[in-house]
Amino acid sequence: MTQAQLQETANQPALIEEPGVRNWRDYFTFNTDHKVIGIQYLVTTFVFYCIGGVLADLVRTELKTPEVDFVSREVYNSLFTLHGTIMIFLWVVPAGVGFGNYLIPLMIGARDMAFPRLNALAFWIIPPAGLLLIASLLVDAPDAGWTSYPPLSLTTGQIGQSAWIFCLLLLGTSSILGALNFMVTILKMRTPGMTVHQMPLFCWSMFATSALVLLTTPVLAGVLILLAFDLLAGTMFFNPTGGGNPVVYQHMFWFYSHPAVYIMILPFFGAISDIISVHSRKPLFGYKAVAYSSLAISFLGTIVWAHHMFTSGTPGWLRMFFMITTMIISVPTGIKIFSWLATLWGGKLRLNSALLFAMSFVGMFVIGGITGVMVAAVPFDIHVHDTYFIVAHIHYVLFGGSVLGIYAAIYHWFPKMTGRMLNEFWGKVHCALTFVGLNLTFMPMHALGMMGMNRRISEYDPKFESLNFLCTMGSYLLAVSTFPFIINAIWSWMYGPKAGNNPWDALTLEWMTTSPPAIENFDELPVLATGPYDYGMSNRNTEVDVPLADEREPVLAAGPSSVLRAEPDPNVAANPEDRK
Amino acid sequence: MNIPSSIWTLLIGIALTLVSLWYGQNNHLLPTAATDEAVLVDGLFNAMMTVSVGIFLLVEGILIYCAFKYRRRPGDNSDGPPVFGNVPLEALWTLIPAIIVIGISVYSFDVYNEMGGFNPHDVHEPPVAQKPMKMPGSAIAATLSDTPPSTAPNLNQQKSEEARLDPATASVRNDDQIPQQRNAPGVGVVAPTIGSSPDKQGKPPGLAVNVTAMQFAWIFTYPDTGVVSSELHVPVGREVMVNMTANDVIHAFWVPEFRLKQDAIPGMQSEIRFTPRIMGTYPLICAELCGPYHGAMNTKVIVETPEAYNQWIQEQQVASIEELNQAVAVKPADLSPTEFLAPYTSNLGIQPEILKQIHTNHH
Amino acid sequence: MQSQIIDPAKTDLNHHHTAEETASHHEEHPDHRIFGLILFLVAEGMIFMGMFGAYLAFRALLPVWPPAGTPELELLLPSVNTTLLISSSFVMHNADTAIKKNDVSGMRTWLGITAAMGIIFLCGQLYEYSNLEFGLTTNLFASSFYVLTGFHGLHVFIGVTAILAVLWRSRTSGHYSNEKHFGVEAAEIYWHFVDVVWIILFGLLYIL
Ligand code: HEA
Ligand code: HEA
Ligand code: CUA
Ligand SMILES: [Cu+2]
Fold first, then answer.
1. Do C39 and A214 lie within an 8 Å CB cutoff?
2. ipTM field
């Protein structure tokens, strides 16, 4: 028997034979099932992604030529403001919550989230908030950038800016409620045989994410409340003419918004860990190191915010402090990257769309991460701050990272969510087009920024025209690349081949139920007869060739006795050696 | 590990290093380095680029190698080897990046120090509490029992007043109507400064220029000569000190060829110093979103020979005397900012009507 | 794979998981709600922390603080108010002790007193507002004062509402008992939170 079969056999009692097929109407109601809510999140946020993407392509169309010829300057500012806000607050952040909702209870063997009604409430806050933001486009759109720095944000349109503030307050509330739910669920609702050191890495990263959300999102709420008073009641918190200080706004804003970038990447770090391990048929290299590096990133992520403010009057010593802490973040991130590479190394890679997206994720995120370290260096950041170099950085981490991560996760868990397989051919076409489009769009921006093109401008020096033209063509390619996916997803959802319970021969508990999972997930409590990443254990006795390893010492071992391994539940372990 | 594979590793390692070193030095990604500071920044950038190319090639190389070497062959349904991790390896790839980033940090620190990041107000550091600054409202505050007014000098206030001694600067700025923030390094806000590089410390700057940013124009005033201009002219080889502030919203002073960027924030006086080393005409760009015409808020920096610079100053002085004669009838103080600014903004491609419309728009 | 056979006795029906664990798996466990509430209050606390941080920064950055023309704050009423709010925390605790002893009427009394104290605090606050010589937009101190105390007052109001809701529900006999009193406990924790925030706020605005 393979490991997957062992795990499935052991979980026979937990399996409910009846797949939980839902009526489509359920998805439009205040349903408290975490799986319904998960899908609601994912579909809603994807719609917002398309809207945000269309705005991005409008931005790119304007930038195709150096002149202001497509939209007016005011509209241009609204376009990128809404693009940034939508992509961040209505797409990547809630998409992570969507996967968390769908997967966490399944992965930890629970029947639902800790607070199902709160969960539904958190979701239903999002559509009205998004509509509010988009509706403002028709009246008087916000146009001070997604960062809305005062005093500028106090002098442009009042209606649009207040719509932006209220939208973000709502989304912040939703995100706090979601995070609270995840924390409680992960800490309190695991199936009794699962300790924290046996949770799938996605759960670890959602835990790290939720901690960040709980501690930092409220500060954003605080600063937005103050900004709203400035805007609507005429107070002077951030208005220099009355003694207020705009830099204080920046500190408070980045105290949230820097951690927010980790809120946007950590869930996908977790998902990628799971995906790479399953599809390369090897245990995740250094499980515990990868798990704790998420916590390290969370912690470090809260003490680096001022690296966005190196040119706005931050004292020298503080710049140095923030520079060093920022750079240190590459250490835990490096642990992840190298552990993924080591997982791939020597595996039996099933190069399907999920793994291809996951590998592209690693390759592209590294580029964004490295440019991140470069801009963390104060003298260099002084040059490239607020230029297209930063735009390149954010898209390599956010598109090359988060968005590719989302796609990888969709290709991986789609069979579980819908009970049907996605089409592999079109999946690969999607992956290839996205990969090319992404590099074509965002690679030239590095050069543009260094040569002197600043961001948030609708007109630029004609000498940058050719590179901008490339970017624009790339962005059209990205738009095109989305269609194979959309069509594939809709078609496969309805007519795709049946997936079966565990199409990938995976070991984590979400695969130990039917596809789509039964209404209450499990009948009995599921168990971990093998560890969540125990792939390849059938040839347990094969010599593993790892440099620096010594099987006799547990600390140096690389095989199943490694201290870094996630072990099965010793009470039910299928392998006698794992029983205690 | 058998011998051939370790030789391969070595060869690949050497190739990787060579490629990184070569690209690090020959990337030509940055424009001319027109100041002494820019040269330092470029050195740092090239070093980082070397390391980055190395890491990039390593990671992408492994990914591509794995995709080919370890792809599943048709019919093979077995799993890979059960390798679960290895503490020494994890330690290795924790330690090496840590050492690299500490190295980059130290290098950046050094460059920043050389640029003068830590020596802000060396020249006119006032003797503390010798002459307490006049602060608006301090008299009233003194009557309050609980908080005695702080006697620490307010650097922003001081610089603002200093700059206002020049009538031309005073006429384009409104910082007397904006309470000047106090310097408070403890809470992370100071009058932003990049001081003189250590070797020029203690010497007064060769040339002081006051810069005023407003929607959507840069106004340069030369306190030594009373010149007002919409372009920045500086002589080559002399240290220039720029004192800037903004009238309305945040703007940022950026000259790509100088590798220098500094926000101009209303209520604060930012000071930066640089020493131009290559003559030429460079763009001066507003780098902080400041409204619809943010993208048009550009002008030129002209680095020229001292002779050409002096000649330009003289021409400007003649011009401004003519203007002054005209202005006898209309006192500058009676002019609205828009009218006053019109001669300077017109050559930025911004119509006075737009300025006017924008100035009346807010508030 | 030869040597590895699943021990049916072991994997069968999750032998080591007791029935109780399985049962608690089904419904919302009250413990989780308290934990959830505490996490929520951590988040709430961070909003206040953010605002306090901003306040301290404004204080440190304006040349004169409080800005010129700020009349001195009257200390008597706020001190009385503070004492009232702090003591209400102890009163509230009595309600919790009472319900743990299954003394519903005792709990109701204590809750009633707490709510009354909270309402008096709010009235005191409103009275103070109406007698201040500065308005919301007078200067930075005034704005901070109103926004911070107002935001806290909102929390007091929510706390009072929660207490009144508990009181209302406790009319049905058996709604709360020594075993089942999540509502009382939650209201108490919330009330303590509101109290602690006030102490910091009072220190920042009136004393410092
Ligand atoms: C998913 C989102 C995401 C992520 C993960 C990151 C990750 C990082 N970011 Fe980024 N960042 C953004 C999103 C993100 N960022 C956004 C949106 C902005 C702009 C906001 C705006 O102004 O609009 C921004 C801006 C931004 C700035 C401000 C620039 C400016 O405006 O002037 C800085 C400066 O320090 C920075 C740094 C970093 C660093 C050091 C990391 C690190 O976490 C990266 C760590 C990863 C690696 C380093 C790669 C893997 C590691 C190895 C292979 C090990 C070996 C490596 C080394 C030894 C170097 N980012
Ligand atoms: C997750 C975050 C995210 C993502 C995914 C993207 C995706 C893209 N971004 Fe975005 N971007 C940001 C976050 C993101 N961006 C942020 C935070 C900023 C800063 C904003 C600011 O300065 O305030 C920014 C700024 C920004 C700029 C700089 C604007 C400026 O400074 O002036 C540009 C310019 O090229 C750009 C381009 C793009 C492009 C071409 C894509 C493409 O990848 C988009 C591809 C996707 C599509 C094209 C959608 C495809 C779908 C369809 C076409 C389907 C049609 C519709 C239906 C069937 C309903 N972005
Ligand atoms: Cu001024 Cu942008
Ligand atoms: Cu950041």
1. yes
2. 0.90
